[in-house]
């Protein structure tokens, strides 16, 4: 091509926060990032709320919407917003899927499974309430709820707030003809919500409590949460699975003739459990022991290429004109690499929730296997291993556009462990120095950015001056850095710039005319 290669690094969860309070990014020793920021063209761009297609600016960014915006150069209404609209207009209940679900469980139960919080990253409790209410209106008699406890998109020990809220809601709905109650649950990082096949054992554990009703028994979700907390001290996302029983019997196993709705709208952590429900006898990821004959539907279609799940209530955004597609048209050779935890982020999310390549010949994707450990124990994760392979790819001369995601700021940030997160950010910085060197060796251009904040705010904001420090595990509302190294360009400084302006910028640096549907490049002309 004769063009200069462009390498784009997403430092997952590394946002910009002017306050030092709980700021693991500022606390980290990161000479390379500091030097790049001080000496290279740079700007701050938005990564949350309306800038990434979420319902409001109160919604923090996340990897799905962040990588979608980065990789498609446009702002699409995202799952959170689409489901809101679908429920508000009532269209969701006019779908064949909904009527099918209701009809299917005429003599059985309707189960709702999903993340119980108002985090709005994977799900929203209001969506669940709307579905339950309508189920009752449509004549469903028995509803069972299988709850995944959050503490990752919401405060780390907030589960009881949502349990109480939904139990009060169910109590109001319950009458002689309708009965809803919690049947099983567990922390989202302990059961059911694995992603990218990092740890199928999590899904197996979820299957056992939700479907088979096998697990430690409790009389209520509150009792389960309080007991586990007292015994183990773990935070919500890590609480083990539990089964609610009455008179020695699980109250809500999933049986033939039941209907099951996964009320999460985000795809990555919804796919594996969906495959377990949809899969026929050839399913071999774990032994399901008993596979009930149910109608299963997702709140959204989680992967349109792979048709997961078969039934769904809301169409996902139809993301068109992605950067990868455009670059393929120009014969640009692309390379994407990350470790398992974020592998789908730089491929599937980046390409507008597509799991297939646009052009087999032009695209190479590499996954480095993630550790299956609590990440505060190994905050460096696989950053060095990713870099080994990435640098070889850069120096091979076989690629024109290379992208990677270093998960550390985010994955370690989610643990709420400040000290480990500082090390996570430092690990990324060490690798950045190596990437920069490889870029120099091929006379390339390096872009350093992030998909949303996390490590930049590791403590909850204090409500009172003398309140104790409380760990914050969720993403943030902060802007993220955008830096260009190795190119003599001037960058715009504009409040309105966001992740969706990056695709056109990459095209500019590759000497390609940006697609007309994209938001403008960040480079001043
Ligand atoms: O871990 C996840 O599922 C989310 C937080 O809910 O994080 P990210 O968007 O960074 O993948
Ligand atoms: Mn992310
Ligand atoms: Mn995250």
From TrEMBL:
Its BP terms in the Gene Ontology are: glucose catabolic process; glycolytic process
Q: Where does Mn(2+) 1 bind?
A: 410, 414, 475
Q: InterPro entries recorded for this chain?
A: Alkaline_phosphatase_core_sf, BPG-indep_PGM_N, Metalloenzyme, PGAM_B_sf, Pgm_bpd_ind
Group of enzyme by EC: isomerase
Question: For this protein, what is the EC number?
Answer: 5.4.2.12
Role this protein plays: Catalyzes the interconversion of 2-phosphoglycerate and 3-phosphoglycerate.
What this protein is called in its record is 2,3-bisphosphoglycerate-independent phosphoglycerate mutase
Protein encoded by which gene: gpmI
């Amino acid at each position: 091509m004769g063009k200069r290669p462009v390498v784009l690094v997403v430092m997952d969860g590394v946002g910009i926060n002017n306050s030092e309070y709980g700021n693991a990014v500022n606390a980290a020793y990161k000479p390379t990032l500091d030097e790049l920021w001080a000496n290279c063209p740079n700007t701050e761009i938005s990564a949350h709320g309306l800038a990434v297609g979420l319902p409001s600016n109160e919604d923090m960014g996340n990897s799905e919407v962040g990588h979608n915006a980065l990789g498609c150069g446009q702002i699409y209404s995202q799952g959170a917003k689409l489901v809101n609209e679908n429920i508000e207009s009532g269209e969701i209940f006019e779908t064949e899927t909904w009527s099918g679900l209701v009809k299917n469980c005429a003599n059985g139960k309707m189960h709702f499974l999903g993340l119980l919080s108002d985090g709005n990253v994977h799900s929203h409790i209001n969506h669940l309430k709307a579905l339950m209410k309508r189920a009752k209106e449509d004549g469903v008699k028995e509803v069972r709820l299988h709850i995944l406890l959050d503490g990752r998109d919401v405060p780390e020990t907030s589960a009881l707030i949502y349990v109480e809220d939904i139990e009060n809601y169910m109590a109001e709905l319950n009458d002689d003809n309708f009965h809803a109650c919690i049947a099983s649950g567990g922390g989202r990082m302990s059961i059911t919500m694995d992603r990218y096949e990092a740890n199928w054992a999590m899904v197996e554990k979820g299957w056992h409590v939700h479907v088979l009703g096998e697990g430690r028994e409790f009389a209520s979700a509150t009792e389960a949460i309080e007991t586990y907390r007292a015994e183990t001290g773990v935070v919500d996302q890590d609480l083990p699975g539990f089964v609610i029983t009455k008179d020695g019997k699980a109250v809500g196993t999933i049986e033939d003739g039941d209907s099951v709705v996964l009320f999460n709208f985000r795809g990555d952590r919804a796919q594996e459990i969906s495959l377990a429900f949809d899969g026929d006898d050839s399913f071999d990821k774990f032994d399901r022991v008993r596979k009930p004959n149910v109608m299963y539907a997702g709140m959204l279609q989680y992967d349109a290429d792979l048709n997961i799940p078969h039934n769904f209530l809301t169409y996902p955004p139809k993301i068109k004109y992605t950067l990868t597609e455009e670059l393929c048209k120009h014969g640009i050779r692309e390379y994407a690499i990350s470790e398992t935890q974020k592998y789908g982020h730089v491929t599937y999310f980046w390409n507008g929730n597509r799991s297939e390549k646009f052009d087999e010949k032009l695209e190479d994707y590499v996954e480095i296997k993630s550790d299956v450990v609590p990440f505060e124990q190994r905050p460096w994760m696989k950053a060095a291993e990713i870099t080994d392979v990435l640098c070889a790819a850069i120096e091979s001369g076989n690629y024109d556009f290379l992208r990677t995601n270093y998960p550390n700021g985010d994955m370690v940030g989610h643990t709420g462990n400040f000290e480990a997160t500082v090390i996570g950010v430092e690990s990324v910085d060490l690798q950045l120095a190596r990437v920069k060197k490889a870029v120099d060796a091929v006379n390339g251009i390096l872009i350093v950015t992030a998909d949303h904040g996390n490590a930049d705010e590791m403590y909850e904001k204090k409500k009172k001056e003398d309140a104790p420090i409380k760990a914050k595990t969720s993403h943030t509302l902060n802007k993220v850095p955008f830096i260009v190294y190795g190119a003599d360009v001037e960058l715009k400084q504009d409040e309105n710039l966001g992740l969706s302006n990056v695709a056109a910028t990459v095209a500019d640096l590759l000497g390609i005319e940006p697609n007309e549907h994209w938001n403008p490049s960040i480079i001043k002309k």
